TrEMBL record:
The keyword Transcription regulation appears for this protein: no
Organism annotation: Streptomyces caelestis
A cellular component term, taken from the record's GO annotations: cytoplasm
Cross-referenced SUPFAM superfamilies: Acyl-CoA dehydrogenase C-terminal domain-like, Acyl-CoA dehydrogenase NM domain-like
Protein name: Acyl-CoA dehydrogenase
GO BP of this protein: fatty acid beta-oxidation using acyl-CoA dehydrogenase
């Protein structure tokens, strides 16, 4: 079946897409994304036709509830789809991973507002939840002012979120014990924000992760939420639901890099030793080590996600060890993928440095995504603190929201 046939082969009602269909479409689209990777990087945002390719896979509706006509993929299934897209292009997969959070955010909002957000089943949401903005309490809602960074996918989004701390008459309102204040997330149409073309980066250039800002924007109370108070129940009602499928991006990039080098090995010859790469001890060892490290990271991600999801779906609260397992697997996936691709970059040597080199781009993409907080030492500290009964420096990343 051709890609066009596959993308058109939905039943009369698009909401009938299954997890298997979405994954098959993502795998079919990956080669097209790989063909467009250089254009995506040079554009510094996803071109419109690439956005439409992603929409056609159903990736943006992955978390839409079945009760609302969606496929409601679990964390494992979501991660598999993102991983498949990342074998094609890291920036496209990153934007898919961020943009599909609309139904998750909707689960924390009043039902009538949630239905407005999901009126378009493929609506894209962008934005950062870090509370760098301020929301002055006014009758019926808030006046929001702030500037946020890393608005991945904001160039093609419908909705934008922004983390804020609530103020009253200019003073921070107190939050729960241990919190810096009353942390809320505001949701508004993308047109309510001014974007700034700041995204000149080493990697993930095509994600269009620009700064965005607003001043004195009125946001009704019902268009704001706290991760501590979900409307729905189940696994998607937890604060870290938007983080679970993130490892799919680095895992997919590392998979693509290993496959690329394995294909090279079928024709390449070590000119100094006059040995075919496929028979070279050095190459054989490097490829096997890369496969070993990626497999370990991948099994940690999927195993911990599956176990945690089952606990949450049963209505139970994960133990500290169960919660931290997904956190450490997530950080490990980012760091392992970067290490794997760096080792392959070294193996290919000078041929890897010429642009457009896919290994060069993949390594730059991984270096950039590893700067995300989920791969940083503060997350390891927070995980260790959760296990030892200490104080996490970044409680949100380990599932703790006051």
């Amino acid at each position: 079946m051709s890609l066009v046939d596959l993308l058109d082969s939905v039943s009369a009602e698009e909401g009938a897409l299954t997890a298997e269909e979405i994954l098959a479409r993502a795998r079919a689209v990956a080669p097209r994304l790989r063909e467009r990777a250089e254009d995506i990087e040079n554009s510094r945002q996803l071109p419109p036709d690439v956005v439409e390719l992603l929409r056609g896979t159903g990736v943006f509706r992955m978390a839409r509830p079945r009760a609302w006509g969606g496929p409601e993929l679990d964390a494992v299934q979501q991660t598999e789809v993102i991983e498949a897209l990342a074998t094609g292009d890291a920036s496209a997969a990153w934007c898919a991973m961020i943009g599909m959070d609309t139904p998750i955010y909707a689960g924390f909002l009043r039902e009538d507002v949630a239905r407005r957000l999901l009126a378009d089943p493929d609506a894209v949401t962008a934005g950062a939840i870090t509370p760098t903005g301020r929301a002055e309490r006014v009758p019926g809602g808030y006046r929001v002012t702030g500037q946020w960074r890393f608005g991945s996918g904001i160039t093609h989004s419908t909705w934008v979120v922004g983390g804020v701390l609530v103020t009253r008459r200019g003073e921070l309102e107190p939050g729960p014990p241990g919190a810096p204040g009353d942390w809320r997330i505001v949701v508004a149409p993308v047109e309510d924000f001014e974007t700034e073309d700041t995204w000149y980066t080493t990697g993930l250039a095509g994600s269009g992760s620009r700064d965005y800002r607003t001043e004195n924007l009125y946001v009704p109370e019902e268009y704001t939420f706290s991760f501590a108070r979900p409307r729905v129940t189940g696994a998607a009602a937890t604060s870290d639901a938007v983080l679970r499928n993130m490892p799919g991006v680095p895992l997919g990039v590392a998979r693509a890099a290993i496959d690329h080098v394995r294909r090279m090995a079928t024709t390449r010859v070590d000119h100094a030793a006059r040995t075919p790469w496929a028979e070279s001890y050095r190459v054989q060892t490097a490829v096997a080590r890369a496969e070993m490290e990626l497999a370990a990271a991948r099994y940690a991600v999927y195993g911990s996600l599956r176990e945690q999801w089952e606990v949450l779906q049963a209505g139970d609260v994960p133990t500290a060890d169960e919660q931290v397992a997904t956190v450490l697997a997530r950080a490990g996936a980012f760091r392992t993928a970067r290490s794997v691709v760096a080792s392959l970059f070294d193996l290919v040597a000078t041929a890897a440095v010429y642009r457009p080199s896919v290994l060069d781009r993949w390594l730059r993409d991984l270096n950039t995504m590893c700067q995300h907080v989920v791969a940083q030492d503060q997350v390891l500290q927070s995980a260790g603190a959760r296990l030892l009964g200490g104080v996490p420096h970044n409680a949100y990343t380990v599932g703790v929201v006051p």
